[in-house]
Amino acid sequence: MPIFEFACNDCGFIFSSLISNADKDKVQCPECKSGNIKQLLSMFNTGKNKAVNYSSSCNDCAARTRG
Ligand SMILES: [Zn+2]
User: Fold this and answer.
1) Could you tell me the distance, in angstroms and rounded to a whole number, from the CA of residue 16 to the centre of ligand 1?
2) 28: CA distance to ligand 1 center in Å?
3) Full domain range(s) for residue 20
4) 17-37 pLDDT, tens digit each
5) How many domains does the chain have?
């Protein structure tokens, strides 16, 4: 299964999940359990987009968006 990366629209938490295409709609934010998330284009487009830290759980950008 591919790894998808998501951002929570409610709390701003960014996370990645190893899920099938069919399960993308069911993903929940691990922080606040919200289903209000958006998929990020990650892994495959890293050359274009600026700088999200994919190496780990990205605590840094999660903290930044949360304040
Ligand atoms: Zn959340």
Assistant:
1) 13
2) 8
3) 3-66
4) 888 878 888 899 999 999 999
5) 1
Alpha carbon of 66 to ligand 1 centroid (Å): 10
Confidence band (pLDDT; 50, 70, 90) for 62?
low
CATH number, domain at 41?
A: 2.20.28
For residue 36, report the distance from its CA to the centre of ligand 1, in Å.
8
- Residue 4 has a pLDDT of 86
Query: Could you tell me how many residues make up the chain?
Result: 67
Tell the burial category of 29 from Cβ atoms under 10 Å away from its Cβ (0-12, 13-18, 19+): buried
26 CA distance to ligand 1 centroid (A)? Answer: 14
Alpha-carbon distance 56 to 14, whole Å?
11
Residues within 5 Å of ion ligand 1 by Cβ?
Answer: 8, 10-11, 13, 29, 31-32, 34
